[in-house]
Specification:
Blueprint: E1 2-7, E2 10-12, E3 18-26, E4 31-39, E5 46-52, E6 57-59, E7 67-72, E8 77-82, E9 91-100, E10 104-108, E11 112-116
Parallel strand pairs: 2-11
Antiparallel strand pairs: 1-3, 3-8, 4-5, 4-9, 5-6, 7-8, 9-10, 9-11
Length: 118
């Protein structure tokens, strides 16, 4: 089992910044990738950004140039730096981890609310 604990959500003004953190613990051997998804009311959950064990990053078109995913392997933590926030970034953000051992396992954090409003 892998546990994911998120922090850093909250309220920001349009144009402002927030940084989300996701700390992984437990059996993280075989951790292949971690990422952030978000779900706004009435919408499907969507990928925001991900980073593989090799450091390859992937971003949704809507956040490219504004959001940056990074990692601290020593702390088993991933970060999502969100700049130039827009009201449409308002959503619950979920940390996600993919672990591949004998099979593929997917884990989710509890979610953290991000609200962008003036």
């Amino acid at each position: 089992q892998v546990q994911l604990v998120e922090s850093g959500g909250g309220l920001a003004q349009p144009g402002g910044s927030l940084r989300l953190s996701c700390a992984a613990s437990g059996n993280i051997f075989g951790l292949a990738a971690m990422g952030w998804y978000r779900q706004a009311p009435g919408k499907q959950r969507e990928l925001v950004a991900s980073i593989s064990s090799g450091g390859r990053t992937n971003y949704a078109d809507s956040v490219k140039g504004r959001f940056t995913i990074s990692r601290d392997n020593a702390k088993n933590t991933r970060y999502l730096q969100m700049n130039s926030l827009k009201p449409e970034d308002t959503a619950v953000y979920y940390c996600n981890a993919i672990v591949v051992t004998d099979s593929r396992h997917e884990y989710w954090g509890q979610g953290t609310q991000v609200t962008v409003a003036s």
